[in-house]
Design goal:
heterodimer; A: alpha+beta; Four Helix Bundle (Hemerythrin (Met), subunit A); Alpha-Beta Plaits; 5 domains; six-stranded mixed beta sheet; 40% helix; 22% strand; globular; disordered C terminus; B: alpha+beta; OB fold (Dihydrolipoamide Acetyltransferase, E2P); five-stranded mixed beta sheet; 11 strands; disordered N terminus
Chain lengths: 693, 176
């Protein structure tokens, strides 16, 4: 075939991974007692399309593996097999193995063949429960099929295939001649045509397939290579695939459902030196870099595209209206011009919103993995846990979806491991035996809020404090509010788990979680009540490409302060200002003392600027729980700004998170508040931490 | 400076040179000397306009400008050559060039006193750049060329302009 199949691989992988997700969630919802046939159908369909796709694109191993799963599901679907917890567990594990196989096929790398084989045997075992008599034959065959040159056996020298198309095969769009050609492409073939099925001429139906073939292939190719030729026709023909060994023995692999015709005895296979089997197709020869997958593609709902096209249409109309107006402009046309410009502005804004919409995906992409996680972990930990999820359809930027997954998994694991108590403890505390973990997502004032709530034992602020003192993270004489004590768990190297389990407790988690969330421009807060539960709130910006910014002036330079970090802006009075240690400036705001960061100092602004604190303005900002006052000359206005990368052509700059282009075409830098505070050297805790660490 | 003339010259010479088409260089003046850069690297030439300063950056980084939506840093070639800074005048131009760093292409602007001409490789005689010892920066001067008129042109190797660490180095020193 001349079509380059590789171009469709990406789509195949995407669809397959989606299919796997469908299978997984379907299996998780499956209740062994009450069977919903529609549910099994959905799982079956997903498996079937993965199998079909894998066969088409030449991923024989995947297709074989999925085939076994499909057989099992098929029997469940037809009601021939009871749905047992055991079978569901095995299927779930198979989904994992299949996911690994697909990942390897996509990204390259080494496939853990032993786990695939083990899982295949598991599946076979479940399949054979029904008919234990067959188990022996089924167990043997995979070995003989895969390891062609096993010890004690003559080497595999080729294949003998008996292929009898059903009469209607050609009407399904399949041409036997094409299959024979494909066969020929594998190596030297000898084909014997059986014309005994040809009816007398007056009964002959030209569209019927009446011929059948005996095909001998003198090439020790892999079994899947033979099988995949017949992938599309296996239901429309009688097929027997037999191995031919150098000593003249033919063996027919049993347990193949597609094999309906009894193998015919064959002539003597020619004795030939067996050539080494062609290199197995491992993930390695599909050169697809990891980076390519993360760039990936987005599936967009058609309505979103339609609205985009509508918008562009409107824009074009407005544009032509304006250019007509411009051709012969009279002074009295001014109102028309203004109206046109207003329209243009409206359409541009709508267009911008629609384009942004394309990047939005429902958070269920991230949430969908949790039912499985909770199911597996609660069994492992011996706890009873119910997972509740709300707001799964809340839409979040694609980048957020990709990056929030791991931190969320970590937080949920923590809740399961440390939060929820064992049933006995819960009963003793007068709580219901089953603990609840809630995942909520919702919009709130331009932010996405993701909430992880459990009704477990809660955090013990005093215990956290003692631990932190023990580890030298805080001084003993410090007084912290409960809130601050809870936040100690975000410090690097902090873990309260009494015993390190493989679930959590290595103390490398929470600081990374916070870092990841901060990288997304979000924040994380924790609230807890001992014995009642913990509530973790993650706040994320709606989109990463655009932010609301406050334009500030320092000397003759302008900077953008992200509006989310601004608490308020004030003009200080002399009596509010204090000097700390003779040098550091601080001011009293209500009952707090906040450090002052002079922007012109940290950024070394050369131009004329306001020196006197009382003449400029203080913008009170907060980042990572630290507040400070940025001293600027003036506030200029608020704008939505499009974030541009400074690193693309330059590099990262301390205190600057990016750049944007202002209305007049000039560039303004966007402040990274955390970096600015660090530059200002106004985080004493941090400095002390570095010394004690 | 006229690209059309230069192309005409190339066509004129082409039969003699066979498949070896003459490379062209954009030449410009810095502190009275003539420098050249491969014209295929040049994206755009624009007059000097004030740029947005990058705080705490090396002095040769004058700032960033908006190149059709991309943020492009601008370096002063005089300062890169460790010459004295002079005030910019209407002749001052920014040449936006493409440089290859690692696996990625970056766009940077270099500020020069004035652009002068486009010259053809076949009209000049190229010789290797002699070493001047360690105290004179020559690592990004690929070769020296003599024009027909006898003047000397220093051909720059765009990829070796000292911009790689400009952002990173400063960050390191400032972060500490």
């Amino acid at each position: 075939m001349s079509i380059d199949m590789a171009q469709f691989h990406q789509v195949f992988f995407e669809e397959s991974f989606e299919g796997l997700d469908i299978m997984e969630s379907g299996l998780l919802d499956m209740d062994p007692g009450a069977v919903d046939s529609e549910q099994i159908n959905a799982i079956f369909r997903a498996a079937h399309s993965i199998k079909g796709g894998a066969g088409t694109f030449g991923f024989g191993e995947i297709s074989n593996f999925t085939h076994t799963m499909e057989t099992l599901l098929d029997e469940m679907r037809d009601g021939r097999r009871e749905i047992t917890t055991d079978a569901v567990d095995v299927l779930l594990k198979s989904v994992d193995v299949l996911r690994d196989m697909l990942t390897v096929a996509q990204d390259g790398g080494e496939l853990d063949q032993s786990s695939v084989d083990a899982q295949s045997r598991e599946l076979k075992r479940v399949l054979d429960n029904r008919a234990p008599g067959q188990s022996q034959a089924a167990d043997e065959t995979p070995e003989s099929a895969d390891g062609a040159d096993d010890d004690g056996k003559a080497p595999l020298i080729g294949w003998h295939v008996v292929f009898r198309p059903h009469a209607h095969m050609m009407r399904t769009g399949n041409d036997p001649l094409r299959l024979l050609r494909e066969f020929h492409a594998l190596g030297e073939t000898r084909v014997v045509c059986d014309i005994s099925g040809v009816p007398p001429f007056h009964e002959y139906e030209p569209e019927d397939a009446v011929l059948s073939w005996d095909i001998h292939l003198d090439e020790p190719v892999e079994k899947y290579q033979v099988q995949e030729i017949f992938d599309w026709v296996e239901d429309d023909c009688d097929l027997a695939i037999m191995e031919v060994y150098a000593d003249g023995v033919e063996s027919a692999p049993a347990g193949e459902p597609s094999q309906k015709a009894a193998p015919k005895p064959t002539g003597k296979p020619e004795l030939k030196l067996a050539e080494p089997p062609p290199e197995r197709r491992k993930g390695g020869d599909r050169r697809q870099k990891k980076a390519a997958t993360s760039a990936g593609s987005i599936r967009v709902d058609v309505p979103k595209i339609d609205s985009l096209i509508n918008m562009v249409g409107e824009l074009v109309i407005t544009q032509s209206m304006l250019s007509m107006l411009g051709e012969d402009f009279q002074h009295e046309d001014l109102p028309k011009l203004l109206e046109g410009l207003a329209q243009l502005e409206r359409h541009t804004r709508e267009l911008q919103e629609s384009v942004m919409q394309i990047r939005m995906m429902p958070i269920s992409f991230t949430f969908s993995r949790f039912p499985r996680l909770v199911r597996d972990l609660s069994t492992k930990l011996g706890k009873k846990i119910e997972l509740k999820m709300n707001g799964e359809s809340t839409e979040v930027d694609k980048t957020v979806i990709e990056k929030i997954g791991d931190p969320l998994v970590h937080l949920v694991r923590n809740s399961l491991d440390h939060g929820i108590e064992t049933p006995e403890v819960r009963r003793a505390a007068g709580k219901p035996e089953t603990g609840t973990v809630e995942l909520n997502a919702y919009h709130k004032g331009g932010n996405i809020i993701i909430e992880i709530k459990d009704d477990g034992k809660g955090l013990d602020g005093d215990l956290l404090f003692r631990k932190a003192v023990e580890k030298g993270l805080v001084r003993e004489d410090e007084t912290l509010t409960d809130q601050q004590k809870f936040e100690l768990i975000f410090m690097p190297g902090f873990s309260t788990a009494e015993k390190i389990s493989d679930v959590s407790g290595r103390g490398v988690g929470m600081d990374v979680v916070r870092k990841n969330i901060n990288e997304l421009g979000g924040s994380i807060e924790i609230d807890s009540e001992l014995g009642v539960g913990t509530d973790i709130v993650i706040r994320l910006p709606l989109t990463l490409a655009i932010l609301d910014g406050q334009v500030v002036r320092v000397g003759d330079e302008t900077y953008i302060v992200p509006l989310v970090s601004i608490l308020e802006s004030i003009q200080v009075r002399p009596e509010m200002i204090n000097l700390v240690g003779g040098k550091g400036e601080a001011f009293k705001l209500r009952d707090e003392y906040l450090p002052i960061v002079r922007m012109h100092e940290v950024f070394d602004v050369p131009s004329e600027h306001v020196e006197e604190l009382t003449e400029g303005l203080l913008v009170i900002v907060e980042a990572e729980g630290h507040k400070c006052g940025l001293f600027v000359d003036d506030l200029l206005g608020q704008h939505q700004v499009v974030i541009k990368s400074l690193e693309e052509n330059y590099g990262s700059v301390e205190g600057v998170s990016g750049a944007t282009i202002l209305g007049d075409g000039s560039v303004a830098l966007i402040l990274d508040i955390t970096g600015v505070i660090r530059l200002g050297g106004n985080r004493p805790e941090d400095f002390r931490l570095q010394r004690t660490a | 400076m006229s690209t059309e003339t230069a192309t005409a010259e190339t066509l004129d010479i082409a039969p003699r040179a066979g498949e070896q088409e003459g490379r062209q260089y954009l030449t410009f003046d810095v502190a009275g000397e003539t420098y050249g850069v491969d014209i295929l690297r040049v994206q755009e030439i624009r007059g000097w306009e004030p740029v947005t300063r990058i705080p705490n950056a090396h002095e040769c980084v004058r700032g960033v400008l908006n190149l059709r939506g991309a943020i492009v840093p601008v370096y002063d070639l005089r300062l890169m050559l460790e010459l004295d800074w002079v005030a910019y005048d209407p002749e001052t131009v920014v040449i936006i060039i493409k440089v290859r760093q690692g696996d990625s292409d970056k766009h940077v602007g270099i500020i020069v006193d004035a652009v002068s001409d486009v010259i053809n490789e076949l009209d000049i005689e190229i010789s290797n750049s002699p070493s001047f010892g360690e105290h004179i920066k020559t690592e990004f001067i690929a070769s020296l060329a003599t024009e027909k008129s006898g003047g000397m042109v220093m051909l720059l190797d765009a990829d070796r302009l000292p911009i790689a660490g400009a952002g990173d180095d400063d960050e390191d020193t400032d972060a500490d």
